[in-house]
Amino acid sequence: MGKNNKQFVEKITAMEDDFAQWYTDVVKQAELVDYGSVRGTMIIKPYGFGIWENIRDELDKRFKETGHSNVYFPLFIPESMLQKEKDHIEGFAPEVAWVTHGGEEELAERICVRPTSEVLFGEYYSKNIHSYRDLPKLYNQWSNVVRWEKTTRPFLRSLEFLWQEGHTAHATREDAEEETARMLQIYADVAEDYLAIPVLHGKKTESEKFAGANYTLTIESLMHDGKALQSGTSHYFGTGFAEAFDINYLDENGDQKPIHQTSWGMSTRIMGALIMVHGDNRGLVIPPRIAPTQAMIVPVAQHKEGVLDKAYDLRDRLQDLVRVDIDGSDKKPGWKFNEYEMKGIPVRIEMGPKDIENDQVVLVRRDTGEKEFVPLTELEERLPALLEEVQQNLYDKALEHRNEATTTAVDMDAFKKALEENPGFIKAMWCGDAGCEEKIKDETSATSRCIPFEQEKISDSCVYCGREAKEMVYWARAY
Ligand SMILES: [Zn+2]
């Protein structure tokens, strides 16, 4: 590697030295975002938005396949409407942004900028659901929401972020609970199959559930630094909102019944997971299935006659097969290598005079740095196969890291030792008392991440109080 290449790489902090700084450096250097003018807001740049668009398209396809329709509801919520569901408002009030003036005039009633839209959908459903024939309602919206966070970081916690929020209404508890589980599975599938992020599936404890929900299902992933990230949630509301908003329907027998609701969301926070699960000290690593550009052609010695033409021919030849791009600019090849490594483009295709002479190209994988010479006649077969190998390797590596960073603890000494020596998930038994959960959080800053669907019996007693254990819980420090 030449001198100039080295300088470029040195612009990012090593993750072992300062993980938070590494994250900030990558987000900036890979040209994902810029900071907005208001503290805590972000400008998502073309490359960052391209990745988000691919995630969005994968999710949207699955939502439609399962019968959902996209809608759009307003950004504004009257204060009186937000007050209708007590638990919900208590949960969100501290981070709501309020509109108090319209032009110069003070408003008679404050208007909230949506932090989430349950109440808007509740109000709408109360007016539009009358009979069992109106059910189910399977709506989703792609939108922005605003939460006035105190400390912010791009993607992980920002004042305004993008997401989708599904809001559904059902005749029975059974239908709504099925929907809640179905949507969690969709999030898990997209995370694992497309983002190459292995996830734990489970239920949130009472203190960690969504404000106003009966229960919250979650997928949780593990970052390089051993912290967890909640990566998608699906909530079952029971009839809570139906009671607050008076949403009833007449069943087949003419009896009046309350509806059962769900909501579910995945946001641009998942971009943070993508960065922190796969990235390395050379920058981003984007899984091929989600990468806006899967292969980047970099001509070598392009000033030599015929090289650039051949490289463009190669681009034309591959573009129906994979998402391919070419950098024919006059920047030095070494500079280009570094730039596309920083952006995490899965495969680089090098082509120089010698390769042209030998009817071959050089393929370089971003995840391992391995190079291979491939005859042009075999490229159509080899390139897609290589992309799949990269995809699989990223998933396997992430799963291996999670397994290595998962410890079991039967008492608090083991719990604290695990957090210090091998930060990651801790499997430990819990008595079900919120008091124990609170004390664990106070003493270790680890929170309960989920009560996994796949339970194991590690011991008979609660890791904190020693009383009889009810469930195994995954604990971790989290973003
Ligand atoms: Zn306990």
From TrEMBL:
Location within or outside the cell: Cytoplasm
PROSITE patterns registered for this protein in UniProt: AA_TRNA_LIGASE_II
Keyword tags: Aminoacyl-tRNA synthetase, ATP-binding, Cytoplasm, Ligase, Nucleotide-binding, Protein biosynthesis
Documented EC number(s): 6.1.1.15
Alphabetized SMART domains for the sequence: ProRS-C_1
Superkingdom assignment: Bacteria
GO biological process: prolyl-tRNA aminoacylation
Function recorded in the entry: Catalyzes the attachment of proline to tRNA(Pro) in a two-step reaction: proline is first activated by ATP to form Pro-AMP and then transferred to the acceptor end of tRNA(Pro).
Record text about domains: Consists of three domains: the N-terminal catalytic domain, the anticodon-binding domain and the C-terminal extension.
HAMAP family referenced in this protein's UniProt entry, alphabetically: Pro_tRNA_synth_type3
Listed name of the protein: Proline--tRNA ligase
Organism encoding this protein: Lentibacillus persicus
